[in-house]
């Protein structure tokens, strides 16, 4: 059973929805130089996320949107009132969104924010409140100023911490009366796997592994300072961390497979460990030392991390993988990873393995480890939707996916897990992260736009819309 007051809703990111990338003074972000990659093999992780300094410079010289779909998004910037009305019709009690840093500070280094950007987000959050939708806001969701990436190599440089803290302070001061639930960094662990989109670290500028771990440490420090500011400036404000939950099983009971899985799990969880417990795990410090990776601690960092830990743990969950030491084991893609394919699970059209039981396992593991409230802030399935002759997408496959996951969530709650809420990714079709496609659709609401930006942008509820509306109205008790 889902508890009274459980928050039901959906999750969006500014860089995948807003569009209006150069409107009202907004500056370019790292997402705005990420190209459309429809023909890249989804198991070719390097090709999906590789970018060079010259790629960035070339993208900035191109002011178009054809090659860079995140620049247009789904025009949420101009259509948010209508979209929020649809979310209210669904019965949402919460909506996760992010703030585009460059809409407030175009280069990230300005002393004062753009008032046009402040006005947009104040209007957005006010409209959410009018519909009785609780905002949960991510400060940094794969959209840092590209100017900071080019000038400092992103978060690899300690000076970026001060720029982020100034930005966070403005958000708390200007929006704190409307927003009580905050997240610092989306999927903070991802900076090791895709350093540019997550932290503006450019792979061709020095040792990318060392730079990525330096950047992660700087994000830890910035997150702790932002948590302190949230508690000081936002009445009843609560700060959460956000982890990519990459639950991994051993492919076999061969001890070497189990040991490899254990190491993968420790590496996945350690960023949340730092933000919850306020210190690096000793096993991770030893691993980094063995790999000749330096953590750039400065005086006071240890105290900052220890004194300003998060209030709750949020996470994304899409799939599970397995691990094996067998070099010939078949591989399958997932959410920003490639892992060993599990022979017992079906796969989505993008090769992600569907594992509802893994969500229950993940919830129990996370709550047992951290003993803080949890929030599942991303979960969903990307599919190629077909509009029927009646103009409606009949997406029983999406309903089946969510039903199975909600059943497992309920079992975890019954087992004693403290789960605050659930936000699907994404409640409306948006531009996807890795390949910048529209054809990879997640929403309960269809958006009339193809991969090349053609279409009316009309919003149309799918069959899953009515089903999710019923689920929310019954607080998860009616999944039929």
From TrEMBL:
<dbReference type="Pfam" id="PF00232">
    <property type="entry name" value="Glyco_hydro_1"/>
</dbReference>
<keyword id="KW-0378">Hydrolase</keyword>
<dbReference type="GO" id="GO:0005829">
    <property type="term" value="C:cytosol"/>
</dbReference>
<comment type="similarity">
    <text>Belongs to the glycosyl hydrolase 1 family.</text>
</comment>
<dbReference type="GO" id="GO:0008422">
    <property type="term" value="F:beta-glucosidase activity"/>
</dbReference>
<protein>
    <submittedName>
        <fullName>Beta-glucosidase</fullName>
    </submittedName>
</protein>
<keyword id="KW-0326">Glycosidase</keyword>
<dbReference type="InterPro" id="IPR001360">
    <property type="entry name" value="Glyco_hydro_1"/>
</dbReference>
<dbReference type="GO" id="GO:0016052">
    <property type="term" value="P:carbohydrate catabolic process"/>
</dbReference>
<dbReference type="InterPro" id="IPR017853">
    <property type="entry name" value="GH"/>
</dbReference>
<dbReference type="InterPro" id="IPR033132">
    <property type="entry name" value="GH_1_N_CS"/>
</dbReference>
